[in-house]
Amino acid sequence: MSFPYKHVLLIGATAGIGKAMADHFISQGIKVTAVGRRKERLDAFSHPTIDAVFLNAGRQGHYSFSDPSSVSLKQFNHEITTNFTALVALTHAFLPHLLTHPTPTALLFTGTGVSLVPAFPLPAYSASKAALDAFIVCIHEQLRDTQVSVLHLIPGPVQTEMHDAEMGERGKHFGMPIGQFVEEAWAGLTKGEKDIFVGTVGGSTFEQVKELQDKRNGAIDRLSGSLRNFGI
C-alpha cells in the first residue's frame, strides 16, 4: 500500500517533526504547503490542491506546581491553546473542504505517548495532548462513514528543537533520532495504519504502551457501539 494523498497542508512545518516530515513528503513526490512561524524557512515549499491536512504544531514547557510562584498561567494556557484548541479550530475550518473534495482526504495529527502516560514535569503538554487524543478519537468515529480519514502519529521523545529551551545541549540527544522517526512514521502511513506508534514512552516498552492503547481502543469501540445502539 502507498500513501494515497498528493498534496499535504502541513501546519508547524518549519522545525522538528514537521520540517522532517515535509522534507520526506517532498522526496516522495508529494506536494507540500508548509505553514509555520519561521517565514525565512518557508520559501522552498510548493502549493496546489490540498487533499490532506497535517496538524503538527506544538509547544512544550516545564511547570512545577510545587512552587506556584514559578508557574506562568499565561504561558500554561498558551500551550493548551497551541496544542489543543487551535487544532480544533483548524479542524473545523478545513473539514468543509475535505468533506467535499473530489477524492478521498485525510486529517493527520501529531500526538504523543504522554497522552496515555502523562509526564509529571509537563502538565500542560500532557493534558493538552490527552485532550487532543480524546478529540481525535471522537472525530474518527464521527467521520467514519465519510471520505475523510483521521490518522494519528503517536511518537515517544524525538530529537528536535522542542527540548532545547528546557534541556539545553542535552535536548539534542533526548529521544530517537529524527531520521529514524521519519522512516518509522512513513512506514506506518504507507501501511494505512490509523494509530501509528513510533518509539516508546520512557520506562515502558513499545509492547507495553501498545497494550494500553489496544485495551483502551476496545473500551472505546464498546462505548461507541452502545451509543450508536441508543441512536446517539
Automatic annotation (TrEMBL):
Family stated for the protein in its record: Belongs to the short-chain dehydrogenases/reductases (SDR) family.
Keywords: Oxidoreductase
Protein name, per record: NAD(P)-binding protein
The keyword Oxidoreductase is annotated on this UniProt entry: yes
GO molecular function: oxidoreductase activity
Pfam families: adh_short
InterPro entries xrefs: NAD(P)-bd_dom_sf (IPR036291), SDR_fam (IPR002347)
Protein source organism: Lentithecium fluviatile CBS 122367
Top-level taxon of origin: Eukaryota
